Amino acid sequence: MPSRSRTTARVLISVSLRSGPAWRPAGTVLLAVSLAGAAAFLLLGAGFGHTHGPDGLYERIFLAVEPLWIALTAGYIAAGRPRLNRPG
């Protein structure tokens, strides 16, 4: 079962990344992906207990969005962004 704290943490991290100018482009995309994951997480709870609810669909969306957020973050870092000002 997905964790509420991980879902909340991804949204908060994405919001905080948007505050830095070097991370702003990635932060916007990551925020959209994390909000989609949060919506899928909330829909999982709304469909709980229904005999013919679309729980499987929401679970698949959640399980696709969460690794996507991690992959996008890793890809952005691997691409050499953000460019940090290093002293010296």
What are the salient characteristics of this protein?
mainly alpha, 3 helices, single chain, 88 residues, 0% strand
Unreliably modeled segments: none
Tell me about the largest β-sheet. none
Report how far the terminal alpha carbons are from each other.
48 Å
Oligomeric state of this protein: single chain
The H/E string reads: HHH
What value does the average pLDDT take?
79
Provide a count of the helices. 3
- Domains, number: 1
How many extended strands?
0
Rg on CA atoms, Å: 16 Å
In short:
The protein is mostly helical and 88 residues long.
Overview of this protein structure:
By secondary structure, the protein is an all-alpha fold. It has one domain (4-78). Helix content is 69%, strand content 0%. The chain has three helices and no strands. The chain has helices at residues 4-17, 24-46, 55-78. Helix 1 (4-17) packs antiparallel against helix 2 and helix 2 runs antiparallel to helix 3 (55-78). It is elongated. It starts with a helix and ends in a 10-residue tail after the last helix. The mean pLDDT is 79.
